[in-house]
Amino acid sequence: MKILVLHGINLNMFGKRDPAQYGVATLAEIDSSLVALGNQLGAAVQAFQTNAEGAMAERIHQAHTDGVDAVVINAGAWTHYSHGIADALAVLTCPVIEVHMSNIHAREAFRHVSVFAGIAKGQICGFGVDSYLLGLRAAVASAQAAKK
């Protein structure tokens, strides 16, 4: 099983950016935890981060071509306004799980809206690094269910 984890704009700054909101784990540490959990769950996890919206869309297109089994995405601020990334995600036929480290519904009003909500199978937010790990578990379970 192949799971793609996508990290969007500014998420390369985890561990440095607003630790009260996002914790102190770095993106490399998060990715390492995801790969380890993926191994336990029988899934190969590949992670990708970019600050370029076009590069994110291209990576999503590649996921379609590669036939990934599920996608976990934390698009950062793009979640709230990138219809281009939403359109790219809509091309996928596999489950998409949206995750956020912080509880976006308890923050500024603009963060309450996700342009991916209608595309994603579900959203997990507010649990820090565990949001990613829960998202990976949901992605694996959703991909397994889709194959039955």
In a nutshell, what does this entry contain?
With 148 residues, this protein is of the alpha/beta class.
Structural summary, described in words:
- 36% of the residues are buried.
- The chain starts with a strand and ends with a helix.
- It contains 5 helices and 5 strands.
- It has one domain (2-147): Dehydroquinase, class II (Rossmann fold).
- The chain is of the alpha/beta class.
- A 5-stranded parallel beta sheet has the order 2-1-3-4-5, with helices on both faces.
What secondary-structure arrangement, pairings included, does this model have?
Elements: E1 2-7, H1 19-22, H2 27-41, E2 44-49, H3 53-66, E3 70-74, H4 83-91, E4 96-100, E5 122-125, H5 129-147
Parallel strand pairs: 1-2, 1-3, 3-4, 4-5
Helix pairs in contact: 2-5, 3-4
The helicity comes to 40-55%
What is the CATH class name?
Answer: Alpha Beta
Outline: globular
- CATH fold name, please? Rossmann fold
Query: Compute the gyration radius: what is it?
Result: 14 Å
Number of domains: 1
Question: Which features would summarize this protein structure in a list?
Answer:
148 residues, 41% helix, alpha/beta, five-stranded parallel beta sheet, Rossmann fold, 5 helices
